[in-house]
Each structure stands twice: as C-alpha cells, then as structure tokens.
Design brief:
The complex is a heterodimer. Chain A is mainly β. Chain A is 0% helix and 57% strand. Chain A has no helices and 11 strands. In chain A, the strands form 2 sheets. In chain A, strands 2, 4, 5, 9, 10 and 11 form a 6-stranded mixed sheet that branches. In chain A, a hairpin with a 4-residue loop joins strand 7 and strand 8 (71-76). Chain A starts with a strand and ends with a strand. Chain B is built from no helices and 11 strands. In chain B, the strands form 2 sheets. In chain B, strands 2, 4, 5, 6, 9, 10 and 11 form a 7-stranded mixed sheet that branches. In chain B, strands 1-3-8-7 form a 4-stranded antiparallel sheet, with no helix packed on it. By secondary structure, chain B is mostly beta strands. In chain B, strand 7 and strand 8 form a beta hairpin. Chain B has strands at 5-7, 10-13, 19-24, 31-38, 42-50, 53-57, 64-68, 74-78, 87-94, 106-107, 111-115. Classes of the chains: A mainly beta, B mainly beta.
C-alpha cells in the first residue's frame, strides 16, 4: 500500500530558508500535497503538485518533485516565526477511483528568532 | 465564504458511552471526509461521503459510523467508546469527490474527544 515518510523535526533561524522533505512509495499517477497545522487548528492546504510536474512555486513556497526517487520537498523562503507549525505531506493516487489522502506523520518546524 | 465548521470543539466522554460529532462543509462542497489524528498513529482516514453516499471507508471498526444529509452536512458517530478513541477528529470538505482530479480538501478545526 501507499506510505509517506517525513522527518519529524526541523529547526531554522528566522530569515533562513526551510526545506521539508518527504518520500512516498506509490508509483502511479499521483497528486502530492503539503498541509500546515498550527497548534489547536485544523490542516491548511498550502499547495499541491501532480506527478507530471517537477516544480511549482507560489510566493515564498517552492515544491520540488523528484519522481524517479519519489522524493518531494517544500522550501519556505525567508522563514518567519509565523511559519512555526507542523507540515504534513500527503499523497493520493488518482487513476484508481476513490482514493483518500495518505498522510505522513508531519514535520514540526521551529523557527528561532 | 465561511470555512468548514465542526461542533462541538471539545468533548469529554466516559468509556462505553457513544458520541456524535458534526461537520458543516464549505458552502457548495458536496464531499465530506473524516480523519482521526493521534500522536501515535498520525492522521488516519475514517470515511468519505459524497451526495449522501459513503464512497470510501478506512480501516476502523464498525463502532465508527457516519452519514451525510441532503444539505451536505455530515455527522460521525462512535459507539461504545474506548480509551484509545481519544483523538482529534478532523472533517474536510471538497468540491469534488476523491475520484476527481486535484481533490482540494479543506479542513475544519477539529473536535478534540477525550475518553476517560
């Protein structure tokens, strides 16, 4: 079955770039998502990419996909203290009908002022 | 446009009781999914409803059930509560069901259930 792996913790200084990594196992046509969860809140959809793309940029966020290695990364430029949260990578296989999102365990990003 | 709303936000129940959680999706969204979030297991998919029909179900015991109403609002029910059911229960809505492309899910703030 599908599996999504993430490192659990990342600490960066304010103003630096953060890079959060994720690996997945499904080799089918896939959508890959990044969600952000702040304390006491639900998940906020940040961005997503289809597996036929290599890169997607949205303001301070850059998603890179290496399909050969099944590796996904989220780069946050000019990281701010407000970016401190848990970031979840999620995968969905598209070509097999009704499939839910499969989430990684999340990476806790701590931004040091 | 209002986001996904979930009620109640916090709930304390005793073992053996049953509980009903409610979710109102974003206006116009017809797909509602439920997830259980715990520190140990992370986010696990419970079920998805679209147009009042259950389209998909995760690997949870039959004590977990749900339904969707004609206005797309959804409820989930857990009977005979166990200590391990303590979790954050998240509801997510989307315009299209999981069989469609993109499938952008928008999450509510969750209901924190504590079973004592």
């Amino acid at each position: 079955g599908e599996d999504v792996e993430q490192s659990l913790f990342l600490s960066v200084r304010e103003g630096d770039s953060s890079v959060i990594n994720c690996t997945y196992t499904d080799s089918s046509s896939t959508y890959l998502y990044w969600y952000k969860q702040e304390p006491g809140a639900g998940l906020q959809l940040l961005t997503y990419i289809f597996s036929n793309m290599d890169m997607k940029q949205d303001q301070r966020l850059t998603v890179l996909l290496n399909k050969k290695d099944k590796h996904l990364s989220l780069r946050i430029a000019d990281t701010q203290t407000g970016d401190s949260a848990i970031y979840f990578c999620a995968e969905r296989t598209w070509n097999s009908g009704n499939t839910p999102l499969v989430f990684g365990k999340g990476t806790r990003l701590s931004v040091i002022a | 446009k209002a986001g996904v709303t979930q009620t109640p936000r916090y709930l304390i129940k005793t073992r053996g009781q049953q509980v009903t959680l409610s979710c109102s999706p974003i206006s116009g969204h017809r797909s509602v999914s439920w997830y259980q979030q715990t520190p140990g297991q992370g986010l696990q998919f419970l079920f998805e409803y679209f147009s009042e029909t259950q389209r998909n179900k995760g690997n949870f015991p039959g004590r977990f059930s749900g339904r969707q109403f004609s206005n797309s609002r959804s409820e989930m029910n857990v009977s005979t509560l166990e200590l391990g059911d303590s979790a954050l229960y998240l509801c997510a809505s989307s315009l299209t069901p999981s069989g469609g492309t993109a499938y952008e899910q928008y999450f509510g703030p969750g209901t924190r259930l504590t079973v004592t």
